């Protein structure tokens, strides 16, 4: 019964695995990537099969040789009785036993190779970078595509030879060719010859590993920077060349040992090999580093620093950064403000986290909807390009009215509609978001077709839905409290046309109802892998995907857009940096080569080959030709909404903070080193202490605590601004730099960098450097100046004392002509009610002066028109929170 139960468990797991395999194929086929599924399968199966067959053949050949070299007779010894019994038992099955042993070890050794499928794909479809490394003068493609797989092959070969040597030695022992407890000959000459040949081959394989290790010096971290250093090229490289020669000599000695008695020569060879490896491979390079390089480091490493600078700037796509001097002046006028009105008008008064809480309160409209994120984008509104925040209304499965199987999988299958709000407007009074698109059914200035307003595919959406079943799907509840239902009309999903498919999905999801439910018909489709991140990762698992997808309303439909990256740590001499989000890990080469879209209604996945010059993408396109769509087939309307990815810009700015310096001496001395500005903090403001207000009340005396940097760096912000060298506004990412200093003691602004997202200038990077010697306040300094302004401090204090919570928004650095302004929104969350943040006022800084007002225009009028500031009573009055739209 135990055996039967075990077999049933194994069978169920096997069937579930087969079901997963089959339903994966159905998914790939349903999105039009059936060829890709087969190519991925072959990429994992072929190398494993090839290496399994090679190992099996080599192991079996050695076992056959071991049997044929078995001595006809040996002098009886204490071990022979047990061995004789073994041979008597296995003799009839000797041939089959060899096959079983060889197959067992082959499956173990060969099966592990399937994990190297990505290296195999790149090796087979390798292309050239047309850039040569400065040390060995090989194309960079050799290091990215060829060298990793070659190293794996010979590491695998050496490990395989070790296994074969041990198993062969055991076979010889069992056949009587080796005896451990005999006063006579312990190893027969034939066995000695056999094992010597295997050891000789192992020595040659080790020699090849030493040869390949030479090229790995290009990734050394021994020197001042990453890449082959003086010690690597003058000591480590010579040591490896000597070890190659020793390996070849050792292989020759193993072969020569066939004709000599004993094992003296091999033992001497191995001992000498180990000693020389220690001396020339470890001690000699350490001596060179300590006594030749360290006392005169810059002169010795100057050449290698230059190599690293050039390679790093190229690998991180920083060689084409347009570097400009920012001719800073602090005499901004009202006329210049008027001339840059669109830049000023698009200053963000809403941060995504704060507006999202408003959406959640006023626009979910039902408990089974939710907003996961609010994404920055730009749309044409009344003929003007306007920054907006966009958030689809998605399904909130945990809060369905019923958690029955029918409700979770048949009735509540999708979210509904999108909310769009301008980033620069708040209602008066109340300080709530204004809306360009809202409510159910959707209405507003941006068109969304009600037929395709269903959000069937979205963020953090797990499980599955059965659509077009006998049970209609809930669509939305209208204002007259009537329920509207729908039937899915999209082309996405897998049709449940047979019992085999229904059974396969029942096994995949562990859900018997999928098989037996009477609501499922032949017209029913199953939607699974509905999370957009999981969806694109499944289609292209060899790419890295940004964690922040953003929705675009295009042709009255909703498309999710994701950024795909090709990344490697194999670019010679380039410095490695660690990233976050979709680029978590360490890389020294990254490209945003792919833009993916997922239709929110039918789940259609399209992968656009966006950077056709990227060699990694070219290799993947050769391997999976039907997976990618040419970028020139991307709709122009979609191009107008593309964003330069924040994850990539974060890493590029971190690299550029060091590698804007191209002079090797300045780079070595770190005299011009920058850092991304410390994060001036945002969120709840805290206060302590009391002061007499003159009206008999006491409030906090301590000024609001300014955010102090704890190592976190400011995030880049998307902004619609006009730069000093431009005639029109562009949609940009901006991130500021400050000097490197101990404990962030220096936080004055030294530069800021932007990345352009507009179609005609997409991907252009610019760096604006402040004049040398000028003291220009950075974000953290301005944040401190804001909270030391008496009027700002009193407003924060009084509101906090009344029970409200004051919340600071993100700090925005906005260039206007050759001047700079800092703008920060401030929100207030009431002490009672729904605890929703309302926009309350804005603080603005320019040329050493900080002001506060309930509107941005009012703050600018204070700065440039002499308008008096608002009274403390006006600033500290309690906000009223009312929704601007009702269901």
Give a description of the structure.
This protein is an alpha+beta fold. It is 41% helix and 19% strand. The strands form 11 sheets. Strands 1, 24, 28, 29, 30 and 31 form a 6-stranded mixed β-sheet that branches. Strands 16, 17, 18, 21, 22 and 23 form a 6-stranded mixed β-sheet that branches. A hairpin with a 4-residue loop joins strand 8 (437-438) and strand 9. It is flat. The two termini are 62 Å apart. Mean pLDDT is 88; it is low at 687-710 and 881-887.
In short, what is this structure?
This protein is an alpha+beta fold. The protein is built from 25 helices and 36 strands.
Radius of gyration: 35 Å
What is the number of helices? 25
The proportion of residues in beta strands is 15-25%
Question: Helices and strands: which structural class?
Answer: alpha+beta
How many β-strand runs?
36
Shape: flat
Which runs of at least 5 residues are low in confidence (pLDDT < 50)? 687-710, 881-887
Largest pleated sheet: 6 strands, mixed
Secondary structure layout:
Elements: H1 2-30, H2 34-68, H3 80-90, H4 94-111, H5 117-124, H6 140-175, H7 189-216, H8 230-256, H9 264-293, H10 297-315, E1 322-325, H11 334-339, H12 341-345, H13 352-362, E2 369-370, E3 375-381, E4 384-392, E5 394-395, H14 405-411, E6 415-416, E7 418-422, E8 437-438, E9 443-444, E10 454-455, E11 464-467, E12 473-477, E13 483-486, E14 494-495, H15 499-509, H16 513-516, E15 525-528, H17 532-539, E16 544-545, E17 550-554, E18 557-568, E19 577-579, E20 585-587, E21 589-599, E22 605-609, H18 615-623, E23 628-630, H19 636-639, H20 646-659, H21 664-669, E24 674-676, E25 683-684, E26 691-692, E27 698-699, E28 717-721, E29 730-739, E30 751-756, E31 765-769, H22 779-788, H23 790-801, E32 805-808, E33 812-816, E34 819-829, E35 837-846, E36 849-853, H24 856-865, H25 872-876
Parallel strand pairs: 1-31, 22-23
Antiparallel strand pairs: 2-5, 3-4, 4-7, 6-10, 8-9, 11-15, 12-13, 14-15, 16-18, 17-18, 18-21, 19-20, 21-22, 24-29, 25-32, 26-27, 28-29, 29-30, 30-31, 32-34, 33-34, 34-35, 35-36
Helix pairs in contact: 1-2, 1-15, 2-4, 2-5, 2-6, 5-6, 6-7, 7-8, 8-9
């Amino acid at each position: 019964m135990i055996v039967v139960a075990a077999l049933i468990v194994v069978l169920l797991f096997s069937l579930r695995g087969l079901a997963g395999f089959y339903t994966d194929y159905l998914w790939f086929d349903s999105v039009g990537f059936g060829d890709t599924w087969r190519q991925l399968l072959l990429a994992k199966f072929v190398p494993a099969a090839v290496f399994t067959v090679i190992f099996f053949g080599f192991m079996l050949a050695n076992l056959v040789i071991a049997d044929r070299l078995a001595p006809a007779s040996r002098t009886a010894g204490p071990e022979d009785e047990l061995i004789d019994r073994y041979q008597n038992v296995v003799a009839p099955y000797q041939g089959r036993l060899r096959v079983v042993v060889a197959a067992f070890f082959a499956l173990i050794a060969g099966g592990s190779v399937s994990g190297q499928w990505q290296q195999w794909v790149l090796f087979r479809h390798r292309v050239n970078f047309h850039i040569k490394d400065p040390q060995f003068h090989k194309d960079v493609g050799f290091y990215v595509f060829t060298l990793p797989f070659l190293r794996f092959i010979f590491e695998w070969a050496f490990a395989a030879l070790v296994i074969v040597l041990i198993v062969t030695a055991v076979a010889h022992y069992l056949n009587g060719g080796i005896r451990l407890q005999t006063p006579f000959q312990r190893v027969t000459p034939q066995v000695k010859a056999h094992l010597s040949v295997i050891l000789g081959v192992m020595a040659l394989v080790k020699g090849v590993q030493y040869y390949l290790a030479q090229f790995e010096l290009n990734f050394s971290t021994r020197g001042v920077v990453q890449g082959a250093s003086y010690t690597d090229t003058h000591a480590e490289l010579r040591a490896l060349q000597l070890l190659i020669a020793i390996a070849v000599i050792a292989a020759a000695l193993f072969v020569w040992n066939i004709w000599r008695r004993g094992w003296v020569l091999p033992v001497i060879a191995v001992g000498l090999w180990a000693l020389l490896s220690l001396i020339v491979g470890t001690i000699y390079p350490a001596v060179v580093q300590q006594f030749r390089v360290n006392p005169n480091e810059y002169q010795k490493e100057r050449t290698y620093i230059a190599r690293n600078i050039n390679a790093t700037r190229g690998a991180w796509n920083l060689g084409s950064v347009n570097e400009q001097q920012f001719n800073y002046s602090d005499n901004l006028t009202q006329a210049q403000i008027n001339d840059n009105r669109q830049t000023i008008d698009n200053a963000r008064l809403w941060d995504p986290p704060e507006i999202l809480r408003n959406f959640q309160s006023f626009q979910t409209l039902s408990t089974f909807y939710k907003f996961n994120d609010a994404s920055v984008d730009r749309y044409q509104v009344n003929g003007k390009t306007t920054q907006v925040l966009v958030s689809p209304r998605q399904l909130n499965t945990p809060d369905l009215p019923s958690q029955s199987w029918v409700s979770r999988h048949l009735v509540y299958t999708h979210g509904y509609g999108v909310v769009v709000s301008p980033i620069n407007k708040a209602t008066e009074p109340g300080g709530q978001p204004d809306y360009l698109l809202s409510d159910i059914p959707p209405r507003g200035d941006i068109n969304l077709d009600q037929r395709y307003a269903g959000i069937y595919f979205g963020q953090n959406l797990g499980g599955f839905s059965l659509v077009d079943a006998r049970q209609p799907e809930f669509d939305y509840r209208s204002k007259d409290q009537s329920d509207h239902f729908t039937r899915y009309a999209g082309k996405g999903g897998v049709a449940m046309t047979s019992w085999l498919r229904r059974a396969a999905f029942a096994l995949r999801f562990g859900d018997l109802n999928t098989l037996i439910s009477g609501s499922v018909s032949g017209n029913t489709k199953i939607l699974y892998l509905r999370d957009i991140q999981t969806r694109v990762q499944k289609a292209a698992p060899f790419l890295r995907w940004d964690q922040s997808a953003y929705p675009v309303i295009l042709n009255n439909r909703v498309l999710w857009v994701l950024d795909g990256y090709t990344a490697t740590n194999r670019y010679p001499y380039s410095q490695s940096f660690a990233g976050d989000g979709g680029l978590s890990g360490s890389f020294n080469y990254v490209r945003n080569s792919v833009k993916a879209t997922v239709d929110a209604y039918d789940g259609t996945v399209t992968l656009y080959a966006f950077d056709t010059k990227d060699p990694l993408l070219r290799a993947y396109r050769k391997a999976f030709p039907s997976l990618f769509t040419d970028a020139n087939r991307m709709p122009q309307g979609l191009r107008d909404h593309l964003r330069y990815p924040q994850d990539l810009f974060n890493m590029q700015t971190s690299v550029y903070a060091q590698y804007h310096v191209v002079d090797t001496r300045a780079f070595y001395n770190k005299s011009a080193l920058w850092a991304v500005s410390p994060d001036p903090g945002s969120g709840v403001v805290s206060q302590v202490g009391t002061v007499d207000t003159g009206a008999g009340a006491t409030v906090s005396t301590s000024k609001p605590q300014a955010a102090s940097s704890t190592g976190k760096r400011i995030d880049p912000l998307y902004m619609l601004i006009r730069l000093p060298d431009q005639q029109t506004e562009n949609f940009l990412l901006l991130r500021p730099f400050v000097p490197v200093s101990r404990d962030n003691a220096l936080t004055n602004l030294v530069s800021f960098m932007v990345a352009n997202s507009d179609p005609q200038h997409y991907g252009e990077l610019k760096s604006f450097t402040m004049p040398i010697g000028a003291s220009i306040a950075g974000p953290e300094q301005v944040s401190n100046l804001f909270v030391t302004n008496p009027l700002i401090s009193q407003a924060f204090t009084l509101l906090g004392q009344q029970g409200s919570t004051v919340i600071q928004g993100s700090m925005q650095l906005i260039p206007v002509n050759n001047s700079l302004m800092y703008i920060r929104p401030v929100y207030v969350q009431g002490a009672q009610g729904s605890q929703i943040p309302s926009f309350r006022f804005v603080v603005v800084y320019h040329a050493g002066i900080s002001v506060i007002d309930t509107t941005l225009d009012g703050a600018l009028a204070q700065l440039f028109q002499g308008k008096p500031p608002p009274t403390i009573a006006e600033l500290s009055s309690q906000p009223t929170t009312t929704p601007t739209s009702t269901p």
